[in-house]
Amino acid sequence: MITRLKNGPSLVFWILGGYFLTQLCVRLLIPHSLELDESAQVFYAQWPAFGYDTQPPFYNWVQTALFQVLGTHLFALAFLKNVILFLTYLFLGLAAMRMVRSKELAVVAVLGLLTFPQLVFESQRDLTHSVAAVFASALFIYALIRTLDTPSWYSYALLGFATGIGLISKYNFALLPAAAFLAVVIDPEFRKRLFDLRILVAAIVGLLVILPHALWLLDHLDLATQGTINKLEGQDVTSKWAQVALGTISLAGALIGFAGLTFLTFLLLYPRSLSQTIRRNNRWSLLLGRIMLCALALLLVLILVSDSTNIKDRWLSPIFLILPLYLATKLDQLDIEIEPYLSRMWSLAKVILICMPLVMLIRIPAHGWFGDYTKLNTDYGAALSEILQRVEEQPMAILASDVHLAGNLRILRPDLPVFIAGYSQLIGDTRISTSTPLLVVWRVGKTEDMPGSLGKWIERIGVPRPYTSGKVSVPYNFGRPGDASTFGYALVRIDPAAG
Question: Residue 284, exposed/middle/buried by CB under 10 A (0-12, 13-18, 19+)?
Fold first, then answer.
């Protein structure tokens, strides 16, 4: 395999294609309950919009379009995610092949992406918007390298397109083009590209991509930013110095959490080679290194001027995804191969490629065996089936207590609209015009009664007739005997409000 990869570096993309096809099959083999981000995609797909909540809408738009083609099924969710992840590796690989002389090192850079836990595990487990952001990052880096190396109308347009979809994938993506701009300004050779008139093409394309969401954002700024601000301001502190210290420590922890394993892997695989490249640089290693340093500087400024104390490691993914490319450009400056680059990385990569699908396959049963239940251990299909058997008539709509539950019910019954309390900016006027049987479903916690927020929502859309509630308990997927998840339900017939 090593010889074949050396002779045909593009083989690595076929290998990765097989890997993501395997991951797709694994997702279809494990329980079809949905994770949090997956269920949000299913729920929001009922109402195509220019914006939804605290996350930009790019992934929602693509997923909704795919649902229209393939139907609202788990296959459409898993297919999109694995295609986007494959394209992430593809574009970073194409960028690496433009930056390094040794195509063997380009393969090393691509396989090095497998050492990011956020990319290889968390992205498969649940993430959606972050997956879109790393794809946009890969496309941006490819377009940037292509524009700086061999500029053309197409490369500038692609750069603008990548910037646009990045900004409507995750707001923190803005760090990457900002850091790249600073890195380009610093370099006299690359700086010329900023004064090329074709950069206007990039600006126009990027603006056209973000314009619909940007207009929505102007009217919903509080909704879109409040969640992010709350996450950044993770702890209450009594002084500015304490806040800056906590924010800086959090940033360091996030950096180690996201990129530490990857850096350590390269250091262990190529200790002698990397030690000899510490002071060696070329235009590409300088560019990538400056992008990462400028991004860190911008984050430190953010911590200084805001109340940020909580930086998540996944927020750094659009920036430090380029670390394997940076290390490959450093190794590429050695005239001789001191250590067997590809064979060492391939020895590790093939273990990851084999083990990760197995981990994803057995993790849900393992959680069940130990009684540490995850979202996929909950059997929503069995719960909904039993509820529908108990109610006296079939509902025309479903009201759920939260987005996660709503998405799981919606994928089971895509023929029915599913609502949750709130989201009036998305759902709009839900007042009914005809008598409607509404199935209300909630999770049973300390009390079995219907949550008050659901009752108030019902009263706003019409006049509910008297109803009785019940509950169902269904065993967990792979659960221990006697362990069950419990849901409350009520079939409420609602008449139109007078007037």
Answer: buried
pLDDT of residue 262: 95
Question: Which residue in 79, 202, 193 sits closest to 139, CA to CA?
Answer: 202
Total Cβ atoms within 10 A of residue 481: 6
* Helix axis angle, 199-219 to 153-167, nearest 10°: 20
The pLDDT, as a whole number, for residue 353 is 97
Task: Name the token pair of 260.
Answer: 């530490």
Q: How far does the chain reach from its first CA to its final CA, in angstroms?
A: 75
Q: How far apart are CA 168 and CA 345, in angstroms?
A: 34
Task: Please work out, in degrees rounded to the nearest 5, the angle formed at the alpha carbon of residue 443 by the alpha carbons of 441 and 468.
Answer: 50
Find out whether 156 and 201 touch, Cβ atoms under 8 Å: yes
Contact (Cβ atoms closer than 8 angstroms) between residue 361 and residue 470:
no
Please report which helix (H) or strand (E) contains residue 390, including its range.
helix 380-390
> Rounded distance, CA 250 to CA 258, Å?
12
Name which of 419, 489, 414 is nearest 449 in CA terms. 489
Burial 313-345 (b: 16+ CB within 10 A, else e): bbbbbbbbbbbbbbbbbbbbbbeeebeebbebb
The 10s digit of each residue's pLDDT in 12-34 is 999 999 999 999 999 999 999 99
State residue 418 phi and psi, 5-degree precision.
-120, 130
Cα maximum dimension of the chain = 84
Can you tell me the distance from the alpha carbon of 185 to that of 191, in angstroms, rounded to the nearest whole number? Answer: 5
Within 10 angstroms of residue 352's Cβ, the number of other Cβ atoms is 16
238 token code pair? 């009594």
Residue 463: what residue type? V
32 and 74 Cβ atoms separated by less than 8 Å: yes
Reported pTM: 0.93
Q: What does the pLDDT look like over 203-215, one tens digit per residue? A: 999 999 999 999 9
